[in-house]
Amino acid sequence: MKVYIIGIGLIGGSMALDIKTHYAEAVIFGIDANENHLNQALKLGIIDKKAQMEDLNKADLVIVSVPVDIALVLLPVVLDVIEENALVLDVGSTKLPVCEVISTHCKRRNFLATHPIAGTEFSGPSAAIKGLFQGKTNIICEVEKTTFKLQERAMELFQRLEMRIRYMDPKSHDKHIAYVSHLSHISSFMLGKTVVEKEKDERDIFDMAGSGFESTVRLAKSSPAMWTPIFKQNKKHVIKSLEEYIANLTQFKTLLEREDYDQIFNEMANTNRIKEILNGKK
Ligand code: NAP
Fold this sequence. Notes:
Elements: E1 2-6, H1 10-22, E2 27-31, H2 35-43, E3 49-50, E4 61-64, H3 68-81, E5 87-90, H4 96-101, E6 111-116, E7 137-141, H5 148-160, E8 164-168, H6 170-198, H7 202-208, H8 211-216, H9 224-233, H10 235-257, H11 261-271, H12 274-281
Parallel strand pairs: 1-2, 1-4, 2-3, 4-5, 5-6, 7-8
Antiparallel strand pairs: 6-7
Helix pairs in contact: 6-10
Bound molecules: NADP nicotinamide-adenine-dinucleotide phosphate.
């Protein structure tokens, strides 16, 4: 099986490692705008060979794992080049723009829109992790628009990677993901900014930072090159989620100003049910 991964970073690289584990016959080709990343991926054994876009006509499987704005430009080109039996997956964090951009392409049925809910705050091939997708959810959009035979090939891959599948329409995906992923990243970035701006003497931050601060601010280490286009593409839902979040922050501030500690207690006690919600997911 000839697998071409475009964007050999955290997600593309992790996919490559797992495909190598589960498909002994797979040969992994890497395509990336960053020559250093390609060389690193070769050295780390993530890819077997470097390749170019023109080579995609030899592919059985193409995984597009670049920032979401770049994916909109590359995907139509990928579909132009591939042969009729090739499967093309994207793994982008937004789904409506990508589904729209290829909606009328004559090879639309070769494409499957996916979003693996797995990752870390790190980027590039050195961040790739074996087993990253095990037990994680993969959201699949517009499955009915992909040829049945290629759907089956994709499901076989996700089964071998031990992923859980959820089907969703792209609009619902983008609306829901704004709350659980995009808002969390903004919240972490702005918490980091607030503390960094206030504590000019950085040593104080490091001396006093407990595990609570560290875990809450973890996502602020994420790549701006990846996140700016996500916020741009999902602007409408991100703004709505921010409005609701800001209203909650403002309400908390008001309660504190009013010294309404009973209500502050209740707010936190009600929110504690997040423990059961997240435990139920495991
Ligand atoms: P990453 O580690 O930064 O990898 C992306 C790779 O694509 C980098 O090597 C980047 O090079 C390269 N690239 C940029 N422009 C390119 C182009 N025009 N042609 C070819 N390669 C190009 O990013 P990632 O975290 O793997 O994210 C990849 C995709 O997965 C994104 O669509 C993201 O939304 C999605 N995703 C991410 C996560 C997560 O937690 N990180 C989770 C689920 C889905 P440079 O670094 O030089 O730009």
